[in-house]
Amino acid sequence: MADRLQSIRQILVDQQLEALLISQPENLRYLSGFTGREGYLLITAERAVLATDSRYVEQASWQAPLFEVVLVVGEPEQTFELLLDRLFLAEKEDAEHSETMLLGPGSAPLPRLGFEADSLSFATYRRLEPIAERRSLDLVPTSGLVEELRMVKDDGELREIEKAVAVTDEAYAHLLNVLRPGMTEKEAAWEIEKYEREHGAEAVAFDIIVASGPQAALPHAEPSDKPIVQGETIVIDMGARANGYNSDLTRTICLGTPPDELRRIYEVVLNAQEAALAGIQAGMTGAAADALARQVIESAGYGEAFGHSLGHGLGLAVHEMPGLRRQSAQILRDGMVFTVEPGIYLPGRGGVRIEDTVVLENGRVRVLSKAAKSRELGSKRR
Hints:
The protein is α+β, with helices and mostly antiparallel strands. The chain has helices spanning 2-14, 25-32, 57-63, 76-94, 122-134, 145-150, 155-178, 185-198, 260-279, 286-299; strands spanning 19-22, 40-44, 48-52, 68-71, 112-116, 138-142, 203-204, 209-212, 233-238, 240-242, 245-246, 249-254, 311-313, 320-324, 337-340, 343-346, 350-353, 356-361, 364-367. 36% of the residues lie in helices and 21% in strands. The strands form six sheets. It has a six-stranded mixed beta sheet with strand order 4-3-2-1-5-6, sandwiched between helices. Helix 7 packs across helix 8 (185-198). The two termini are 42 Å apart.
């Protein structure tokens, strides 16, 4: 956490900010270690304050030893006032009437206090704005400052992701052993969730998708009471969470013999994924990575049926930087963890998606997911 604080303080210098207000929960956890879902951080070059309510204050005191923890009661503007008061008093103790005091009187320009525009609602901003004006502060919207740091995982973060991946792989193998025609999509999804929670996951990473038949043509379908039928594609999208870090896995299977068209698109999607896994390199953009798989699918005549991006970053959030999509200029670097998940979806008939969690190491992709996948679609035991 000390290294992360140092990194964000360097960003304050680079962005010409005197302070940064952190409200996004994953960013709060990343910088402080605090796992509660309610709180704010206020960070300056010298100070680090964490404000939370009575439900979490004791937890915060031992999870975030590098932060001064303060108890707050009331609405966001009252929390903001308390944070500024605490910071002002601390600064005043260090330098009475100093021209460098963050909140003291001084000459223009006004001290700049950054806030996370992607997290803080406009309604909350409007409530904080008059407080900042009264304190002679310039509220500055920021975007992606902490998320940029989170893109590259350290060894400890990677270990937690690997734990989540391992539980997910095991849960998928368990599902293949119990899946039968007539089982509903909801029952299959529960088999996954139950297994993950009983075998080391603190939670599922997201709502599990089990989508069969025409439902498989919906990339974000919800499990239903529909029974699983032989000859239909079944898209299974699942993940687990370990110590806050997530995995993401998709496999497409079929009980029995699928229609020729679905068998064909399975081969196209698998070829597209293999092309991306082999071709992604550190230094390329997210758009270039996306193109590796998209070219395969477009060449097969299914370009319009691949509507989503190739992949997304993975860590404390299920979807985070970097983005592997057509317009992404983000540069891929060693230490980044992301998904590779091409898909083809045929409305009314079915769909195929194949997804692995990977990490960039030594300039190339290392696939973390070990769940089996076949060259052909058709048997449930992949």
